[in-house]
Amino acid sequence: MQSNGYIMNLRRDVFQAIADPTRRAILLLLASQSMTAGAIAANFDTARPTVSKHLQILTECELLEQEQNGREIYYHLNAVKMKEIADFIEPFRRMWDERFDKLEAVMIKLHTNK
Hints:
Blueprint (H helix, E strand, L loop, with lengths): L3 H9 L1 H5 L2 H10 L4 E2 H5 L6 H13 L3 E6 L2 E6 L1 H34 L2
Antiparallel strand pairs: 1-3, 2-3
């Protein structure tokens, strides 16, 4: 059986967090504006506590930040953490772009030699 410490570490792992489609959808929602938990939950056909759990996980791994405005708490993206993810993924994107460019060149060459 896994210890609670191990489970908590999984929750704080950015890539574990973004593996969930609902959490990715939440990130997309918050890409353009800050929103309250209620406003976020209104976009999903799921119970509000479920959305709150997703927000907690995204906050624990620092993808989201909370900002108090009166009695409301607004969630917004942590741009620094999002850039860290993009920087990590960028070398892989470049590698695959190069491979697809080479494949495209081979396909064009084969097509013109017919």
